[in-house]
Amino acid sequence: MSNMGVNYTGKFVLAPMVRIGELPTRLLALKAGADLVWGPEIIDRKIITFQRTENEKLRTIDFLTAKGKTKKDPSGSTVSFRTHRPSEQGKLIFQMGTANPDLAVKAANIIIDDIDGLDINAGCPKHFSVHAGMGAALLKTPDLLCEILTRLVNEVGKPKNKPISVKIRILESKESTLELVDRILKTGVANLTVHCRTRDMRNRESPIRDYLPFIIEKCRNAKVSFIINGGIKSHQEYLDLQKEYGSDIGSMIAEAAETNPTVFSPIPYHWAKAAKEFAKYATEFDNHYANTKYCLSRSVPGKAKVYQHITKSKSKEEIAQIMDKLGEDGSIEGITSEKLNSAKAKPNGAEAKTNNNKRDLEDPQPNNGTIAKKAKVDQVA
Ligand SMILES: Cc1cc2nc3c(=O)[nH]c(=O)nc-3n(C[C@H](O)[C@H](O)[C@H](O)COP(=O)(O)O)c2cc1C
């Protein structure tokens, strides 16, 4: 409903996720059909130190942060945010962490020309966010939250013709949640995303959607688009939520996209094909090795043979080689990981050996039950 550039209405989107939401994950999510992609939260204090550079080799815009020069890395800087405008134009929402309107405006002006929308994180319950008054702490300081949003809308969003949005959690009661929503809707934001869990709820707990009809009605009256977040796992669920709440309602996915960034497709890739595609983007866009390794360790099943190879790898080149050897069905050098590692092979395990794309695409939950041994991030934002 925003008339400023990107429109969030009814969209199916990749959630902001620290470490996970870097360029390769975003590109894979877009390829699979995500309409919009959020970058990972970056705080205002860091953004104001960014040095913008145009990377001609990669055709990316890089925002660098200074760090000490080392023998291993004499550049003295590290890429804190990278965007490939040819792929992300019109689809990239940058998420900022802030508790200070002046700093928020200053930081927003540094990145606004290279992004399509700016989102404020008012939902993260982690200590590093709330102790500084950011993230979910803003839910308890609505005056401050609304001042930040109003100033960003007036001083950055309007002059630059870019939408400002906010992501919140529900509060303990319907009344307090709706009161906060009322206030936010008056700030001029273009979109409201609600993570349907309270600040104290863990991601494994079912979201509470009881207040949604009331929030949605308020958003429609204010001509502000609305995105549901929390516990959504598939394209079908996105369609079901639209059936239930209206076709103008969007859905945002985090954890299920961390596990498989192609979850936006009606038929997601098999985990191995998704991992290979991810690795290709990581190589193409020179993603930081530690980040590539981390993301793969979150998406490759712990039981798969290749998982051990990934966790033991020591360089970009090594990871690229491992991923080259991985078949799209999870096999390495012709042996399926399912066969090797799973005593209780799934009934469809035999089919997996055929290295058949169609079968890959038909497995909508390829990671089910296979990542138990990896510590899942539970209560992040
Ligand atoms: C690994 C990870 C990192 C996250 N980082 C952020 C973040 O930077 N900003 C934010 O607003 N939420 C963050 N979240 C929360 C998600 O955006 C989302 O609100 C939450 O996981 C609920 O959605 P889900 O049930 O689809 O996972 C993160 C979640 C995960 C799993």
Structure description:
By secondary structure, the protein is of the alpha/beta class. The chain has two domains: 12-264, TIM Barrel, CATH 3.20.20; 271-354, no CATH class. Helix content is 39%, strand content 16%. It has helices at 23-32, 44-47, 85-88, 101-111, 127-130, 142-160, 174-185, 212-222, 235-245, 255-259, 271-284, 289-299, 305-312, 316-325, 337-341, 349-352, 357-362, and strands at 12-14, 36-38, 42-43, 51-55, 60-66, 77-83, 92-97, 117-122, 164-169, 191-195, 225-229, 249-253. The strands form two sheets. The protein has an eight-stranded parallel beta barrel, surrounded by four helices. It has a three-stranded antiparallel sheet with strand order 4-5-6. Helix 7 (174-185) runs parallel beside helix 8 (212-222). It is globular. The structure holds flavin mononucleotide (FMN). Flavin mononucleotide binds at residues 15-18, 20, 40-41, 95, 121, 123-124, 167, 195, 203, 229-232, 253-256, 258, 377, 380-381. InterPro entries: Aldolase_TIM, DUS-like_FMN-bd, DUS_fam, tRNA-DUS-like, tRNA_hU_synthase_CS. Its cofactor is FMN. This is tRNA-dihydrouridine synthase. Its EC number is 1.3.1.-.
Major beta-sheet overview: 8 strands, parallel, barrel
**What Rg is obtained from the alpha carbons, in whole angstroms?**
21 Å
The SSE order reads EHEEHEEEHEHEHHEHEHEHEHHHHHHHH
Give the distance, in angstroms, between the N- and C-terminal Cα atoms: 26 Å
- Average per-residue pLDDT, rounded, comes to 88
CATH class of the largest domain: Alpha Beta
What's the domain count? 2
Number of helices: 17
Q: Name every ligand kind in the structure.
A: flavin mononucleotide
Gross geometry: globular
CATH superfamily of the largest domain: Aldolase class I
